[in-house]
Amino acid sequence: MTLLDRPLRDQAATIAAGEADAGELLEATLARIEERNQALNAVVETFPERSREMLAAAPRGPLHGVPIVIKDEWPLPWRAQRFGAAEMLAPSAPGESGPYRALRDAGAVVVGVGNMHELGSGSTGNVSFYGPASNPWNLERCPGGSSSGPASAVAARLVAGAVGADGVGSIRYPAAYCGLTGLKPTFGRSAMAGHHMADYSTMIVSGPLCADAADARLLGSVLCGEELAAGEARGLRIGVVRDLVSEDVAPDVRAACESAIATLAETSGGELVEIELPDLDASALAGVLIANTEGMNGISPEKLNNLNPELSPLGRGLLKYRMLLPAAATVKAAQVRALMRQRVAALFDRVDLIAWPSVPAVAPPLEAPLVELPSGVTTADQANVRGGALANLTGIPAISLPVGLSEGLPIGLQLQAAWGRDALLLDAAEALERANGREWVEALPPLAAAESAEA
């Protein structure tokens, strides 16, 4: 196994110990992106000279010399973000974004920009100015969105870690579809400077996408500017909701998640607690409404009448839809948010975690992102937001971790915890990894497994 195939933390430790050359790792990463990315379209731009300059100036931080992909949602000193879109309505310019500075100060090397769902407005990754990204487990399937490229890049082992952004599940959906561990930190905890919505978004956070929880802890600590210290997941009280998010789910997904939840309770010496969380459907709608309202910055009737024709029809429609949102709906969404925060706070007096599937079905086809559930066929976006929006609406941390396969595609379990308990989510994820022999975090998609075996 080459260093490039080893975990993020191993890469950092090996370089720090002087047992590997960071320059060689960077060149190997660039070569692998060149070899594998054509099939994936996960990385939309590399800049070898800039990456080499970054490495030459890299301090001896916790990620010294480690290559990282960053989502097209963040500006770099030499490149403006473009949100996977032909046009951004808000100003866009090169700059030192918060995630870039966090990576730079940790000694990491930004090696490429990851593709993303156009304007961050979808959970599948099948629409982008650059063309859709593909899922390494099956190139005809969605990688998830909107952090599609970062997830695809890590799953295909182009890099060991990537930075995504999560506004309504946009880290957790691709983590689930691609078999990764993706952490949405507590709102306000991770680096956001430079994001065009940084000053007024109440939903979006940056976060890590990695193969396992220990790597997510390392990269997440860098993004949060503080250590997400490891602890023991003992006596976990795991809240289980009997609702659409846990029951209107593909049979294989439901079985794998229920088994994983039971295993986590058993291995931690904890218990399952049946809880009620009414109005989850209303909270999903409230999350979408607030995200769209906050996304109106820079929109005017004049701009909407002169949109770039290369924006997708759906993207143009969504932008115009925002202008039609009634003020009463926004007020009602804020009321729902306050109610759900109160309910979630009360629940965390009784439980440590809330658990349900990250997404209700495995990755759908790129050509037609539809999923078949017990209730019938629906769009992946409509189904996914039911379980993804609560964490953004309330600001609590959440994590998606791999717990199985169905049809040769990954299954993800979502855990949510109280505000500030991000580290507990990572502790729980590591406990479950140990309990299942790390079977799912070490599983490789065919594209990566075949080439790793040859190496």
Q: Which architecture per CATH?
A: Alpha-Beta Complex
Q: Which structural class do the helices and strands define?
A: alpha/beta
Radius of gyration: 20 Å
Classify the beta-strand content into a percent band: 15-25%
Helix/strand order, N-terminal first: HHEHEHEHEHEEHEHHEHHHHEEEHEEHH
Shape category: globular
In short:
This protein has 455 residues and is of the alpha/beta class.
How would you portray this structure in words?
This protein has 455 residues and is an alpha/beta fold. It has one domain (11-454): Amidase signature (AS) domain (Amidase signature (AS) enzymes, Alpha-Beta Complex), CATH 3.90.1300.10. The protein is built from 16 helices and 13 strands. It has an eleven-stranded mixed sheet with strand order 1-3-2-4-6-5-12-13-9-7-8, with helices on both faces. It has a two-stranded antiparallel sheet with strand order 10-11. Helix 10 (280-294) crosses helix 13 and helix 10 (280-294) packs across helix 14. The longest helix has 21 residues, at 327-347. The termini are close together. The model has no long low-confidence stretch (mean pLDDT 96).
List the helices and strands and how they pair.
Blueprint lengths: L7 H9 L5 H19 L2 E3 L2 H9 L10 E5 L26 H8 L3 E6 L33 H8 L5 E6 L5 H7 L2 E4 L20 E6 L2 H12 L12 E5 L2 H4 L3 H17 L3 E5 L4 H15 L6 H4 L8 H11 L3 H21 L5 E5 L12 E4 L2 E4 H15 L3 E9 L2 E8 L5 H14 L10 H9 L1
Parallel strand pairs: 2-3, 2-4, 7-8, 7-9
Antiparallel strand pairs: 1-3, 4-6, 5-6, 5-12, 9-13, 10-11, 12-13
Helix pairs in contact: 2-3, 7-15, 9-15, 10-13, 10-14
